[in-house]
Design a protein that fits this description.
Structural class: mainly alpha
Radius of gyration: 24 Å
Strand content: under 5%
Order of helices and strands: HHHHHHH
Mean pLDDT: 77
């Protein structure tokens, strides 16, 4: 067997051992650059709640920011139909209230207030999503 063949066989055997260990539930150590740093539940909950202070706004906008502040887990499960996912990189309706975007967007305000109203009536998240889609999808000018 040549040196190249021995090297390939050794690497292959090493990969098989690592794969078998992972399948058996044994942990393998990842390089430091690839190690995940999961947030604690407390940190994750804290991050979820970070929205702008509703007190700096007035009227319906204040109410929408209040909904976001008090119900971050609800808004985090909803899509925003104003197009901010493409223009601002928002991942969900809650993101609109982490900055000033929600203050200047009638779609965001309408979605947050409608979501809260439906939630208070006992609607499921699926029902709320469908209602928002029916009312707001296609509202943003493209």
């Amino acid at each position: 067997m040549t040196l190249k063949s021995k090297l390939i066989a050794a690497v292959g055997a090493g990969l098989l051992v690592l794969s078998a260990g992972a399948l058996a539930g044994e942990s393998t150590t990842a390089p430091a650059c690839c190690t995940a740093h999961p947030a604690s539940e407390t940190q994750a909950a804290s991050d979820l709640r970070k929205t702008l202070d509703p007190g700096q706004f007035t009227g319906e906008v204040r109410e929408a920011y209040k909904v976001a502040q008090e119900n971050p887990d609800l808004l985090a499960q909803l899509h925003c139909y104003c197009g901010c996912d493409r223009t601002n990189g928002h991942k969900n309706l809650l993101d609109c209230y982490r900055d000033h975007h929600g203050a200047s967007c009638a779609i965001c305000t309408g979605e947050a207030l409608e979501a809260k109203k439906l939630f208070d009536q006992g609607a499921s998240i699926e029902t709320i999503r469908e209602a928002l889609r029916a009312r707001f999808a296609g509202s943003a000018s493209n």
